[in-house]
Design brief:
- By secondary structure, this protein is of the alpha/beta class.
- The longest helix is centred in the C-terminal third of the chain and has 24 residues, at about 280-305.
- The protein is built from 12 helices and 10 strands.
- The protein starts with a strand and ends in a 6-residue tail after the last helix.
- Strand 7 (about 215) and strand 8 form a beta hairpin.
- The protein has helices at about 15-30, 40-55, 60-70, 80, 90-105, 135-145, 200-205, 235-240, 265-275, 280-305, 315-335, 360-385, and strands at about 5-10, 35-40, 110, 130, 175-180, 185-190, 215, 220-225, 245-250, 335-345.
- The protein is globular and about 85 Å long.
- The strands form 2 sheets. Strands 1, 2, 5, 6, 7, 8, 9 and 10 form an 8-stranded mixed beta sheet that branches. It has a two-stranded antiparallel ribbon with strand order 3-4.
- Helix 1 (about 15-30) packs across helix 12 and helix 3 (about 60-70) packs antiparallel against helix 12.
Length: about 400
Amino acid sequence: MDLETVLVLQGGGSLGAYECGVYKSLYKNGIEFDILAGSSIGAINTSIIAAAHNGDKDIPAVLEDFWLSLSENIMYSDPVLSLPGISSEKMRAILFSSYSSFYGIPKAFMPKWFMPNSPDYLLPYKWTFLYDKTPLKKTLMQYIDFKNLKRINVNNTDKNNHNKNGNNKRQSRLIITSTDIQKGEPVIFDTAYMDIDVDNIVAGASYPFYGIRWTEKNGKYLWDGSLLSNTPIMEVIKASPQKNKKFYIVDVFPRSQEKIPENMFEVWHRSRDIIFMDKTDQNIEMLKVTEKCINLLKKMHDIINSNDVKIDQKTKEKLQKLDEDYNPIIEKHGAAITDVLRIGRKEKDLHYLLEDADFSKYRIKKLISQGEKDAEHVIAMNKEGNQDT
């Protein structure tokens, strides 16, 4: 069975810069992806990667330029930040994220209180959002050539599944997630079935707990995909059930933390990490059980239908009816997960409640650098056969 290599990127606000660094390392090591899947900021990153790949551009350069252009060049002097019990590094991060929360991100989010022409400006109790995404849409239009996110033919042999410049480089399939507000169901945008536009992308990056405005698209009201699944592995399996998968997962929220929270801010912080960290282990175990059952069914099917087994006509007719149920099962659940490589931030990294709202150039550069280093380490360990999967 064919093998697809899949990159899965999570939501996490400014922590998406860490994913940028991880991708730079993966690219440098020659790792290419058949499927790119993401939620929230991960949807934005995968969209930029897919469009640049399908347009045969310098993908890491485009992605890093997006993040550096999004960042704010704000500086505070260390003496001002030196407070008892708080390192200057952490205090700087707190000030940066507070600045972003009040003033917004000029190329991404406009605060409602800076929009005096809004009809309900003087009626804040009627507000349904705190930040408007119009600046983000304009920025994405600069970095994404949407003709490279048109619907593709996922048939490997089809010439339309290659880059527009005519070379033999396969196009990457893009899968991004959002949440239907009214139905509480996932809404998936997939270039195997549709063209993806800027509204599809920002629909999946509308995190309501930070007050980011929802997106109305095709009669549906959409919020952030991370509300239902911040690590959309199952969405990929459902969308492409017939090919085996090798997954690369970038986890921007630390899985483990030895320190017990000491105040309510740390309680909220740790609970947020647990809510959004990668929790796909159980799903993968269930898929492996399903895989074993499917393989057993295949063996039984092959034995029964072989010429070595002598059966009467009446029994053969019964088995033919069972084939009608067997084939759909194989088509929908025939793929296996062959490998999972996780690259993630650790507790030792700078870690605090509003870390995902820090868009300072200082922090964005550090996240990119950390992502590169962590990815290089995981790749090296995997080559040595020591990486847990």
